[in-house]
Amino acid sequence: QVTLNESGPALVKPTQTLTLTCTFSGFSLITNGVGVGWFRQPPGKALEWLALIYWNDDQRYNPSLTSRLTITKDTSKKQVVLTMTNMDPVDTATYYCARSYNTLDAFDIWGQGTMVAVSS
Amino acid sequence: DIQLTQSPSFLSASVGDRVTITCRASQGTSSFLAWYQQKPGKAPKLLIYAVSSLLSGVPSRFSGSGSGTEFTLTITSLQPEDFATYYCQQLKSYPFTFGQGTKLEIK
Q: Bridge partners of B42?
């Protein structure tokens, strides 16, 4: 069974760095074509793609946030970590990670999400 | 960036109805178009990928079609569990983008 689970702080202060961890099971991030992406959704708003890391360590970022984002993977721990610097109240959102598979060209399995509030 | 515009943004329908949601792209997305369902407080669920391929386990009342810049999600014979928000997503080019969502409500 494929699962993904996001973890991280529920509250961060403005200007701080957010670190989120996606721990997955049921698949390997060394399998050709597999990727893990991060998304966010502010309350009542639409989904936004943030970043994606592929099995071959290729990393892709949303250009609107690229200067603030870093995505890394630890295949032995089965984790993907997203860091976002200089947090602002507008970054308050539920953050999701999800698996992609090049045979689907979509994100087929999602974590349950983790809510992050940015406030002083 | 490829912009996706969904219509309508809100849709009111009854159980048993047939509904269609449209997703228009600012440029062609080839076959790299997916549809997701999201219920309040839950993560999105993939329904359809590659424009018209139904993910295993998704009921056959869901179908997708389209090409170029115009795509549709059709739900035939609405069930109570189908009332949710639906999003299209393009994966043709980075950044991957979503439509603004269509909220399907019970009439």
A: none
Chain A positions touching B94 (Cβ under 8 A) are: 60, 62-63
Find out whether B57 and B4 touch, Cβ atoms under 8 Å: no
Considering CB atoms only, which of A37, A60, A108 is closest to B46?
A108
pLDDT higher than 80, residue A103: no
Q: What is the pLDDT of residues A70-97, one digit of tens each?
A: 999 999 999 999 999 999 999 999 999 9
Look up tokens 């639906």; give the residue. Answer: B86
CB contact under 8 A, B98 and A46: yes
Q: What is the DSSP letter of A33?
A: T
Q: Quick one: A104 exposed, middle or buried, by C-beta within 10 A (0-12, 13-18, 19+)? A: middle
Location of structure tokens 């630890």: A74
A37, A47, A106 member nearest B49 (Cβ): A106
* Cβ–Cβ contact B97 with A under 8 A: yes
Map residue A80 onto helix, strand or coil.
strand
Look-up of token digits 């670190």 = A19
Strands (E), B1-107: 4-7, 10-13, 19-25, 33-38, 45-49, 53-54, 62-67, 70-75, 85-90, 97-98, 102-106
Residue type at B46? Answer: L
Min Cα distance A112 → chain B (Å) is: 5
**Any bridge partners for residue B57, and if so which?**
none
